[in-house]
Specification:
Layout: E1 17-22, E2 24-37, E3 44-57, H1 58-67, E4 71-75, E5 77-79, H2 82-93, E6 97-98, E7 101-103, E8 109-116, E9 119-126, H3 132-145, E10 151-155, H4 165-174, E11 178-182, E12 196-197, H5 201-208, H6 214-227, E13 232-236, E14 242-246, E15 250-253, H7 266-279, H8 284-298, H9 309-313
Parallel strand pairs: 1-4, 1-10, 2-8, 4-6, 5-7, 10-11, 11-12, 12-13
Antiparallel strand pairs: 2-3, 8-9, 13-14, 14-15
Helix pairs in contact: 1-7, 7-8
Length: 314
Amino acid sequence: MPNTLTQFTAPALDQVRILVVGDVMLDRYWFGEVARISPEAPVPIVRVERREARLGGAANVARNAAALGAHAGLLGVVGNDEAGDEVERLLAGGGIHSYLKRDEAISTIIKLRVIGRQQQMLRIDFEEAPTDTVLRDKLMQFKALLPDYDVIVLSDYAKGSLVNVADMIASARAAGKIVMVDPKGDDFGRYAGATMLTPNKSELRRVVGGWGNEEQLTAKAQQMRRELQLDALLLTRSEEGMTLYTENEIFHMPADAREVFDVSGAGDTVIATMAAMLGAGRDWHEAVQTANRAGGIVVGKLGTATVTREELFG
């Protein structure tokens, strides 16, 4: 089985409609210079010279799908605040259709990263779980949007936006949609019935326990896939690449990264690329190879970044 990216004809990604649902965040970056240590404590002083905001969490998945040329919609919850306004502006600028719900009782999730000398010095998180009323409204809107989309991506960052995920999966599958899930937590049972799960190694280990060799890993991954009635399980393995488990085969791709600069958001790029390729009618092999290449490109960029159609297909 090939372990390098075969040259495929570029798919018609502009015909694919992807709805991303999950925990919406705003990633803020403060860039500066580090010239001295604080006299108050043994910590570096970063003199901030530039600020940047990017879409994070589920919004970054939608951003990646849109960067590939797909029609992307985003359903999630933000606060009725300045950060929520900024998320809306970034979505509009990225050509992403917004179905955001505003929750008066919470603040928008923010991850603030302080960067000095091209290295992350500090990250500060601001987060609150959405209220039940807003989540019920979101579930109703999700079901109403299903006819308009081909692929559903559920991006779970365990921040409270996907408490109704089992109902969402059941509704989407009943409507004949491809349902892909980036999971979190120690119980994957709520994702049962999805088309595919895309855990990383630490996420899988938390659920199934450790493994001593490849045979044990395969047995545990396949047992989980069968128990959850998944068509496929895609395990992202960092420097080891990624492995696809289906009923009929195991397909491994070694890592395609040329230089690893920042792994944040790489999983978002992988699941967005898989969603776009499967939505375009491509098979598992081509989708995994393309997603592996996309992940290899994005880890060479700073922060939550995207890969363009041109970078993937020339």
